[in-house]
């Protein structure tokens, strides 16, 4: 990997990201709790360009997503779906997937990760259904490892592609924006397809 400062490319903000790496890792950790896909993809891109270091980036991603998933599960576990407004909404939004969660939790957790904005509600629903926590942790761990390497890998490869396209894109942020738009388009397509099939 070539250090970021060796690239003859103008950048608006990424030099500041490279300078404040500890802050960037903390942001990644927090972002993985509440968002996920965009920050995972972006982290892979930045690691590929040498703006962030791969090892601490991967650690922040992994710890953040695991901690976040447990929080969403705990939120669902404490919800009384017959009395709580969020619980009633959760049943309406995700109740149709209960059979999948109960019979194939690993497959359901993994596929839901590729449906933008939907995965956290599936995690909360798993808590509402009181899935055995030890089994949930095991299945969620496997799903997360695969998801991080797939989405993070796409971001990493996009960063590598930028190396060959730098003559056409002046700013590193432009390359990241193009990559994110393509990625989000793919996410929306997959999400609509899988929801139509009910996972």
From TrEMBL:
Gene Ontology cellular component annotations, sorted alphabetically: plasma membrane
All residue ranges annotated as the VTT domain in the record: 36-156
Pfam families to which the protein is assigned, alphabetical: VTT_dom
Transmembrane segment boundaries: 23-46, 58-75, 141-162, 168-190
UniProt keyword terms in alphabetical order: Membrane, Transmembrane, Transmembrane helix
Matches recorded under InterPro entries: DedA_domain, VTT_dom
Full protein name: VTT domain-containing protein
Lineage of origin: Bacteria, Candidatus Portnoyibacteriota
